[in-house]
Structure to design on (364 residues):
């Protein structure tokens, strides 16, 4: 009974810690999502949590000072004296209200009182401006408007799809063939070649960028989709081969012996047995490979270039941060546009994820 209680207590502690970690991740993510639907002026004026009911200052009245009021001298408001700097930042009056300049040039003050409020205005303008390259009007915090041109990330989204899908399928297919060969076929230098693959796992890809770039330039592959597919395939193969080998090597040996007795060739065994049985492992490593390629910035910058017609999402968003670091309404919307496809891939394959990670961990 004591052991059962300890096990239950340990499980409760683990679940509590995991729940706390998930909460820490979800709160800023939810805030980012809320901000992506808020008008630009609201994002600059208040935090995302103010879309919920909260206590805040609400304008209740306007005080018009004489037009000849000298702002360099003490300013008298309702019998109280304040400075210009105090009215700029907001100052509490004796009656509990807050005084703040509404229009300093016109000498008008706004009277603010604390009350329940919410800033729950939402818009799709952020996503429209990010996805399209059309011009649109942006309302500033002071009420003025300016006309700017949208980012047109839809083209970058398609470019990223063109890069990510083949760069995920090709290395997984090659790695599955190689893993089957390393696990169940006998050929010269098999163990030496497998050790070489394992050693490549610890080699940083950055050390190979410049030599490969020189070869790409001489072969005319730089700036092409074929070049980036080959690069992602090469960099992703060591981990993918090792992961698939760990799964395929644990499949029952009797299964292959029966297939050989029935006259099946290696290709038949691979297509009829290995691929169907390896679906959980393929789905798991497919998620990792797709997420790496989708979020990649360095490899794409080196091998595909920074021309607008071939840029991927990570490059466009990085440029957006660099040129418009204050435009949070665009950055939040762009962030969620870039998250859509990875989330779709993960939720589509998540039922295989744990099975694939656990595959090969227990010999049976």
């Amino acid at each position: 009974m004591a052991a059962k209680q300890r096990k239950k207590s340990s499980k409760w502690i683990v679940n509590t810690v995991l729940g706390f970690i998930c909460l820490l991740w979800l709160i800023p993510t939810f805030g980012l999502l809320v901000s992506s639907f808020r008008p630009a002026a609201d994002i600059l004026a208040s935090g995302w949590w103010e879309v919920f009911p909260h206590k805040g200052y609400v304008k209740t009245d306007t005080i018009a000072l004489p037009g000849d009021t000298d702002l360099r001298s003490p300013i008298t408001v309702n019998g109280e004296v304040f400075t210009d700097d105090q009215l700029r930042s907001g100052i509490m009056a004796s009656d509990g209200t807050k005084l703040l300049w509404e229009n300093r040039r016109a000498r008008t003050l706004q009277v603010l009182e604390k009350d329940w409020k919410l800033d729950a205005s939402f818009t799709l303008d952020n996503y429209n401006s990010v996805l399209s390259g059309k011009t649109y009007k942006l309302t500033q915090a002071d009420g003025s408007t300016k006309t700017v041109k949208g980012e047109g990330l839809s083209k970058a989204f398609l470019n990223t799809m063109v890069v990510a899908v083949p760069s995920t399928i090709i290395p997984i297919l090659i790695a599955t063939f190689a893993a089957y060969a390393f696990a169940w076929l006998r050929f010269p230098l098999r163990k030496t070649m497998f050790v070489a693959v394992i050693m490549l796992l610890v080699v940083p890809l950055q050390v190979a960028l410049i030599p490969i770039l020189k070869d790409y330039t001489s072969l005319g592959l730089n700036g092409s989709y074929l070049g980036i597919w080959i690069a992602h395939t090469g960099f992703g193969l060591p981990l993918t081969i090792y992961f698939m080998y760990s799964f395929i090597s644990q499949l029952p040996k009797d299964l292959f012996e029966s297939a050989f007795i029935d006259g099946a060739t290696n290709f038949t065994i691979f297509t009829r047995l290995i691929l169907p049985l390896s679906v959980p492992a393929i789905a798991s490593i497919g998620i990792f490979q797709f997420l790496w390629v989708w979020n990649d910035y360095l490899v794409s910058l080196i091998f595909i270039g920074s021309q607008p017609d071939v840029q991927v999402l990570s490059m466009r968003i990085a440029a957006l941060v660099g040129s418009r670091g204050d435009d949070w309404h665009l950055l939040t919307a762009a962030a969620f546009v870039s998250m859509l496809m990875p989330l779709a891939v993960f939720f589509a394959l998540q039922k295989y994820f744990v099975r694939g990670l656990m595959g090969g961990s227990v010999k049976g």
User: Anything to note?
Assistant: Residues 360-364 have pLDDT under 50 and may be disordered. The beta strands are 54-64, 75-77, 80-82, 91-92, 98-103, 108-117, 135-139, 145-149. The two ends are 31 Å apart (CA to CA).
